[in-house]
Amino acid sequence: MEFEAVIGLEIHVELNCVTKMFCDCPNHPGDQPNANTCPTCLWLPGALPRLSQEALEKASLLSLGLGAELQPRSAFDQKIYYYPDLPKGFQLSQIHLPLSRGGGIDILDEDGVTRKLRIHHIHMEEDVAKLVHEMEGRLPVGLVDFNRAGAPLVEIVTEPDFRTPYQAMEFLKTLRTRVRYVGSSDCNMDDGTMRADANISIRPRGTDQMNTKVEVKNMNSVRHVGDAISYEIARQTAAVQADEAVILHTRLWDPDKKATLPMRAKFEGPCVPDPCVPAIELSPAWIEQMRTRLPEMPTERGERLTAQHGLTREEALSLSADPEVAAYFDALVARGIAPRTAMHWLTTQLIPAVRERRQDLNTSPVAPERLAALLDLLAKDEINANAAREVLVEMFGCDEAPEAIVARRGFKQISDADALDPLIDKVLTEQARAVADFQSGQVKALGFLVGRVMQASGGKADPKVIRELLDEKLGAG
Ligand SMILES: [Zn+2]
Question: Would you call 34 helix, strand, or coil by DSSP?
């Protein structure tokens, strides 16, 4: 019998707010342990949580960016359980009335077909504290750091629309891009600002039954999600074929063992409406105002790049995947750089150079106006591409204008025929064999001769002019 998987995802995204969700403590979990705490996030007697406007706005923008419908009324519940990282005994979360419902993401599937993977709802919740396990001499100790307690989170819960690990991975990548575009989170799985759980079950292919699922929790890379789902599908298929029952439980992905392992589930108690935080009422006017704050999203941006600049779908998608890259590209084109040149220099030269230096495209010393000035020199044939690459490297280490670097380093291209003529004649005399090859029809020999003249000019000659002059001389000969 052939089986297919039924997979749903639950994704936690930490919002990049200035403060925590219900108090004014800085939202900096990485600071000195317990530096960012107050009676509210420690839940001392008399504490009164108050929802941060920034968290509400960022969660709303995120919802709209994923095509979800903001609900006119949502509210917080107390998810009751006791755990050392949650000494107040409950977590504030929107269980019954989430912030938004619906929405989804279109992905390009493995078979080349575009598929919509639907979102069930998106809710807000507060993060819990962090447990730190250490040795104090020979005694193991458990410490609690409350810097993260009360940090603003959203949870995106999908429909069980996924059938393959590939779909889950593509969904996560697209989700990350869209959330970065709206600016609500960095969605960096490495530093934990995005974490994913997957619910996985299998069924005979072609049926629509929903079988017992297994939850794999807290995965912190897109690849781990793909690997864990593949592992679970194989494990459950083997169990069913051996007539063993799949039991409802929670597992963890162990990237070293490349396996999911059963984990002891936390006791989850009841869930009751929270009496302290007022319900959130969103007016149609407020929702509309949020919608006007949405930037151009990656899919639309990609379509615009294809239509306006004649880029292919793949080129446009790769540029629009990262909002910083897309904005940089727009800035180059706005300064009159040809779109394809802009794309080529951005993706093959600038981005690798920025990454190599561990810098950010936004804050690197090579701002769009500087790169545009350099590409302008190239377009006007004042320097050749080799020189342009060298100037670019220098631009990282100084704030001189590209023109000044070209002048200082003597990179100005020689495109004057009178200056090149003697160099060409010398090369033609020295390379009689290559000349003969070319004249007997070996076209490759021309490239060799161009290279020799280039070398003789110290790399400064304009290859186009060399080619023209060579054509003239050899054609005549
Ligand atoms: Zn606080």
Answer: coil
Alpha carbons 197 and 107: distance in angstroms, whole number: 19
* Residue 238, pLDDT above cutoff 80: yes
pLDDT given for residue 477 in this prediction: 45
Q: Quote the ligand 1 centre to 129 CA distance (angstroms).
A: 12
Can you tell me the distance from the alpha carbon of 95 to that of 75, in angstroms, rounded to the nearest whole number?
A: 8
Longest pairwise C-alpha distance within the chain: 98
pLDDT digits (tens, 9 = 90+) for 320-370: 888 889 999 999 999 999 999 999 999 999 999 999 998 989 889 999 999
| 29 φ, ψ (degrees, to nearest 5) | -60, -25
Distance 226 CA to ligand 1 centre (A): 37
pLDDT value of residue 232: 95
| Distinct helix (H) and strand (E) counts, the chain | 17, 17
Q: What's the gap in Å between 221 CA and the centre of ligand 1?
A: 29
Q: Closest Cα to residue 80, out of 66, 72, 70, 92?
A: 92
Q: Separation of 353 CA from ligand 1 center, angstroms? A: 41
Distance 91 CA to ligand 1 centre (A): 15
pLDDT digit string, tens, across residues 131-165: 999 999 999 999 999 999 999 999 999 999 999 99
Q: CA-to-CA distance for 350 and 362, rounded, in angstroms?
A: 12
Q: Tell me which residue has tokens 């891009």.
A: 177
Whether the predicted pLDDT of 292 surpasses 80 = yes
Q: How far is the CA of 37 from the centre of ligand 1 (A)?
A: 4
Q: Identify the architecture of domain 417-476 in CATH.
A: Orthogonal Bundle (1.10)
Q: Which residues make beta-bridge pairs with 21?
A: none
The CA 121 to ligand 1 mean position distance, Å, reads 28
pLDDT (tens digit per residue) in 32-90: 999 999 999 998 988 889 999 999 999 999 999 999 999 999 999 999 988 889 888 99
- CA–centroid distance, 92 to ligand 1, in Å, is 14
**195: β partners:** 12
The CA distance from 370 to 375, in Å, is: 9
Position 272 confidence tier, pLDDT thresholds 50, 70, 90: very high
Tell me how far apart the alpha carbons of residues 301 and 468 are, in angstroms, rounded to a whole number: 41
Which DSSP string do the residues of 296-319 spell out, in sequence order?
--HHHHHHHHHHHH---HHHHHHH
Quick one: which of 110, 114, 107, 229 has its CA closest to 170? Answer: 107
Q: Please tell me the distance between residue 95's alpha carbon and the centre of ligand 1 in angstroms.
A: 23
- Name the 3-class secondary structure at 211: coil
Distance of alpha carbon 249 from alpha carbon 217, whole angstroms: 11
CA of 140 to the centre of ligand 1 (A): 29
Q: Kindly list the domain boundaries of the chain, sorted by start residue.
A: 3-286, 296-409, 417-476
Question: Between β-strands 259-262 and 77-80, what pairing exists: parallel, antiparallel or unpaired?
Answer: unpaired
